[in-house]
Design goal:
- Chains A, B: Keywords: DNA-binding, Transcription, Transcription regulation.
- Chains A, B: This is CRP/FNR family transcriptional regulator.
- Chains A, B: It comes from Paracoccus lutimaris.
- Chains A, B: InterPro entries: cNMP-bd_dom, cNMP-bd_dom_sf, Env_Response_Regulators, HTH_CRP, RmlC-like_jellyroll, Tscrpt_reg_HTH_Crp-type_CS, WH-like_DNA-bd_sf, WH_DNA-bd_sf.
- 2 copies of one chain form a homodimer.
- Chain A has 7 helices and 12 strands.
- By secondary structure, the first copy, chain A, is an alpha+beta fold.
- The first copy, chain A, folds into 2 domains: 141 residues, Sandwich (Jelly Rolls), CATH 2.60.120.10; 84 residues, Orthogonal Bundle (Arc Repressor Mutant, subunit A).
- The longest helix of chain A has 27 residues.
- At the A-B interface, strand 6 and helix 3 of A face strand 6 and helix 3 of B.
- Chain B binds a DNA duplex through helix 6.
Chain lengths: 249, 249
DNA sequence: CGGTAGTTTGAAAGAATTCAAAGCAAGTGG
DNA sequence: CCACTTGCTTTGAATTCTTTCAAACTACCG
């Protein structure tokens, strides 16, 4: 719950970065990469730590290098909804706005590659390739948000859980440039409460449905944060979506 | 339910266009506007007509000039969720993708200002001002989608209805550069079923909650498609959001 | 005037929530 | 090394809200 800025000295070169070809820097060539390199710095957060609070000033934007963060929105009476899940290569922050619209929390240990806001905005103006990539990523996020609308509006608790697992499996596979098939292991770096906040459920319902899926043989649990899926296809069917594979792009 | 392309001959000049300063062309100067003017054409749809079906080829992008359209997603078993509501000045279509991701339906009579895809994409590459405006609009849409996630995930049926009315009132006011206050009239160009699809409810629940809000004196009905709100503030309270006014920007 | 599409209302059923209690795993301190 | 606390999770029982199924109502149109 603390918000200590953990600025890391490390100036790792972009060359070997695990998100080099999926993040906002994906299409950059060496010159642009150099400019980014000049304005970047790393920050590390522990699971549970807050990155920013809604309405806080935020003087940087960032790419998620590793770990996971949640964007969270609240009603005054405390009801909480996660409105975004940031996985490696996802972009955090909004160019042109220096106040955070959402509370951002690390749901697992998190490493951010941060860019100071002003220089980054200048870069966006001068480098169409970076701006174009950001537009592309924003459109992808919008599509993802719209899929989430379908999930929240129309899926049963059981389908919601299955869908979350499918999404995590697909994202994990995409980073490794693979396609999820057959027996797979999904790491689930979320508490039951965080899952509930993401799925629009209570944590009790999440727990119950996890148990139900386990009893039905759709998943096996290896500790609380690791799920074994004997048949990915069967999980997709439980998720209620059409069976055709999601975009691997 | 038909999909007749209704191409209008009219070549209205951009100058007096009602969405001139909010749409994707907002920041254009005369030269860029000229280029847009060369590639534009109008299409008109009647309430209930489909603009495109999900997975259809779509060779244009467009701005909504007047009327309202819904983006809709479906599960195989027929459950339907509206995932976007396009109001005047909103942008339709995704540059760089020629296949519609969602079914688009006119919920009221609709006028689109269409741009042929290829020339528009070329313009995006060459005119940072247009690309920048599109990025800005996409980020706004993403924020709106995230507000919708909160609504679908955590609000009661009654709050959902109130929220929809608040949003329509705010959008209507924004176009007229006003702020909604006191006694207002909201036009509601949606059937109960479309409202249900948008709110993740059944049409019966929508109808019941409309009646409840009426009995509570929060709204009055003038026909089915026109709502009188005696006190906008009271409606906002019913919506469950914090009271501070939404962005007028 | 009858037909249709859309809407409202009622009663019963169902899914998820709420409230409550117990279980489990990891870590701390005696 | 064990007792105990703490944070998270699981399970149970009762309640609540929304849905489902059914029927009636309304306004518009030919």
């Amino acid at each position: 719950m603390t918000t200590d800025a953990a600025i890391i000295a490390t100036q790792a070169p972009c060359e070997n970065c695990p998100i080099r070809y999926r993040a906002v820097c994906a299409h950059c060539e060496s010159e642009e990469l150099g400019e980014l390199e000049d304005m970047k710095f790393y920050r590390r957060y522990e699971a549970g730590q807050n990155v920013v609070w809604a309405a806080d000033r935020m003087d940087f934007v960032a790419s998620v290098v590793s770990g996971m963060a949640g964007l969270t929105q609240q009603l005054e009476d405390g009801r909480t909804q996660m409105v975004g899940l940031l996985l490696p290569s996802d972009f955090l922050g909004r160019p042109g706005r220096d106040v955070a619209a959402y509370t951002v929390t690390a749901t697992s240990d998190l490493l951010l590659c941060c860019f100071r806001r002003k220089p980054f905005e200048k870069l966006l103006r001068e480098r169409p390739r970076v701006a174009g990539r950001l537009l592309e990523m924003t459109l992808d996020e919008l599509d993802a948000a719209r899929d989430w609308l379908l999930l929240l509006g129309r899926k049963s608790a059981r389908e919601k859980i299955a869908s979350l697992l499918v999404i995590l499996a697909r994202r994990e596979a995409a980073l490794l440039r693979r396609r999820p098939e057959g027996r797979i292991v999904v790491s689930l770096p979320l508490t039951r409460e965080a899952m509930a906040d993401y799925l629009g459920l209570t944590l009790e319902t999440v727990s119950r449905q996890m148990s139900t899926l386990k009893r039905a043989g759709v998943i096996e649990l290896d500790g609380k944060r690791r799920v074994i899926v004997p048949s990915f296809g069967a999980l997709v069917i439980e998720s209620g979506d059409d069976s055709d594979g999601g975009p691997l792009s």
